[in-house]
What does this fold into?
Amino acid sequence: MRTTFHHKTTSVKNFKVQLLAWAQQFDDVVWLDSNNYEQNHSSFDAILAVDAFTSIKTDFYDGFEKLKDYQSLVNDWIFGYLAYDLKNDVEVLSSKNYDGLEFPDLFFFQPKKIFIFKGNQVDIQYLKAVDDEFDSDLKDITSYQDQGAIPFKNKGDNFKIHQRISKAAYLEKVNNMLANINRGDIYEANFCMEFYAENSLINPLEIYRKLNAISNAPFATFLKSSDKYVLSASPERYLKKDQNTIISQPIKGTARRSHNFEDDELLKNDLAKDEKERSENIMIVDLVRNDLSKTAVKGSVKVEELCKVYSFDQVHQMISTVTSQIEENTHPIDVIKSTFPMGSMTGAPKISAMKIIENLEETKRGLYSGAVGYITPRGDFDFNVVIRSILYNHTQKYISFSVGSAITSKSDPLKEYEECLVKAKAMHEVLQH
It folds into this structure.
C-alpha cells in the first residue's frame, strides 16, 4: 500500500523547518515533535503527515463507533484529533457553553505522505498512488526558502486578548467547586478558563514556531484542518498503545521555573514534597488505573512511576506513569473510548466532575483538553493532551487558548488563579510579544 524511501539529513533542525514550511500548501497537516526530550516510551523523534487521501469528520454522536469503522476499513496510518466533547458519546452528558472555534468533535485522515524522524534519518512513506512524486517533493523541500513560508508577520498589537472569566468570577466559581467537594459530590475537578481574541488574524506557522521555541515540549503539535489550526506545546501524553501495552502519563502538579539554579532546584524539590500537589496526582492515578482496568488483562494494571517531577522550559511538572496489558483481540478504539476524556483534565469521580465543570465553565472546551495523535496500520497509537495550546479558526478570525488547574479540598482559589496565569504566560508572549 505504501512505498518507503529513506533520506539522511546533515541538519535535522533545518530539514524540519523546510519540511513544515513545505507542508503549508496542504489542507490537512499533522506535525508531532518530541523536541528531542529524553523520555521513556518514545517511538520516534518527530512525524509529519500531509494531504488526505481519505478522511472522517463528525460530531460526537456515535463518534467512537464511526472512528472504529473508519480505522478498520482504512487499515493504514491515520492522524487527527478527538475533541473533549466526545465525552457526550461516552456518557449521558451535553456541551452547551459558548463555542467561538467551531471545530468538529472528531477528525482523522489517511495521509498520502508521511515523514518519520529517527536521529538524522527520515523514513518517508508515500501511498503507491503518489510515490512518483517523491523525487520532486524532496527537491522542493530541500530547496525551500524559509522566508517564503511566512508571507506576513503576526501583528500582536492589532488585537486584544480577553479573559472569558474575570478574576472575581473565577474565585467565586472555585469556591462553588469547593462547596461541591465539601459536600462529597467530587474529590477533585479540573476547572478551566478561556483567553480569546476576536476579529484577529495570525500566521499559524510563525506562532507555532515561537511557541515551540520557548517551550520545547515533548508533545508539540502543529495541526491544520482546512481553516482550523492547533498550535500546541503540550508536555503531556494522554495514552499510548505499543503492541499489547497501554501507557498513560497524567500530569498533575505544577511549579514555575527560576533562572537561578539554586532557586530552581528548591522549586523542584518543593513540588516533589508538596502534599496538595501529590494528593492531586494520586487521585488522578487512581482514576487512570480504574479506566485502564476496563480493557486490561486482570491484574496487569501497574503504576510504573508515581509523582515524579520532570522539568520543562517553562515549568516543573509532576507526572505519573500507569501501564496495563490488553488481550490481542481488543480493538484500539475501545481502549481509547474507555479512558476518554483523560483523567487529568476531568476529575474524580469522573462523570460528576464533568457535570460540575460544564456548569461552572463558560466556554465549550472543544479541542482544548482533547487529544491529537495517530493510529498505525497494526493498531498502535499515541495521543497527547491538548493543553498549552493556541487554537485558531482563520475564517472566523477567532483565536483561543485555555488554561486550568485541579481543584481539591486543599485548594486556595487565589493560588489556583495564579497557577492559571503561569500556564497562560507562554501563549500570551507569542501572541503579543
Remarks:
- Residues 148-152 have pLDDT under 50 and may be disordered.
- The longest strand covers residues 46-58.
- The CA atoms of residues 237 and 384 lie 4 Å apart.
- Residues 413-432 form the longest helix (20 residues).
